[in-house]
Design a protein that fits this description.
- It is a single chain.
- The protein is an all-alpha fold and 215 residues long.
- 77% of the residues lie in helices and 0% in strands.
- Helix 1 crosses helix 4, helix 5 crosses helix 7 and helix 5 runs parallel beside helix 8.
- It is elongated and about 65 Å long.
- The C terminus is likely disordered.
């Protein structure tokens, strides 16, 4: 019995490793070819696995797509959110969120840049469970930025008169533009532009007033 249980555990571990390998390939492929292009047949071709082997892990295209989104979120959480959550609340946390977002695009974690920006551009006019899942991730990201901008105002790290919704919109727009331009042009200078632009919007009240007087 012990031998049978050990064999079963090894089989489960092997199955999980195979699933992780498949999803790692799927997240990368999806940022280049889109989630719609992520079929069992295309992924089998890309990984060298058989279609039947893939069907053993994912019974349908939609199941594969949703699992791919979940896998991409795990990567994003580890690369971007976890380091930021270790930073103090307010402006320091916003800075780390932005820096880690830009860093994971600049480092080429996914060949097509931010997985969720790519998926949102593909799915924004196509209602369904895939768009709903991407929208949930996006809304959570915006909520996290918004929460820390408001905490920054409470802590007097930012001018209380600033509209937090507007500030979050501008910060997120700069992140998205850096991601898009880097993919389009391959010019890493856009990351420096985004960092300078974001930092200018996160100046403490006294510094912001001084800068405004000197302009």
């Amino acid at each position: 019995m012990a031998k049978a249980a050990g064999a079963e555990r090894r089989q489960r571990a092997d199955g999980e490793r195979t699933r992780r390998t498949i999803l790692d390939a799927a997240t990368r492929l999806a940022t280049v070819e889109g989630l719609d292009g992520l079929t069992i047949g295309r992924l089998a071709q890309h990984t060298g696995m058989s279609k039947s082997g893939l069907f053993a892990h994912f019974g349908s295209k939609e199941e594969l797509q949703l699992a791919t989104i979940a896998a991409a979120q795990e990567v994003f959480d580890a690369e971007v959110l976890a380091p930021a959550m270790a930073a103090p609340v307010g402006v320091p946390r916003v800075r780390v969120l932005c820096e880690r977002f830009l860093g994971h695009v600049e480092e080429g974690v996914f060949p097509g840049g931010c997985f969720f920006a790519s998926a949102a551009a593909e799915l924004d006019t196509r209602p369904g469970p895939l768009r709903d899942r991407i929208s949930q991730v996006y809304d959570a990201w915006i909520a996290l930025l918004d929460e820390n901008v408001r905490r920054a105002q409470e802590l007097e790290q930012l001018d209380g008169a600033i509209d937090p919704d507007q500030l979050v919109f501008e910060v997120n727009a700069m992140l998205a533009e850096a991601n898009g331009l880097f993919l389009l042009r391959g010019d890493a200078a856009v990351f420096g532009m985004a960092r300078r632009g974001i930092e200018a919007r996160l100046l403490p009240p006294a510094t912001a007033e001084t800068v405004a007087r000197n302009v």
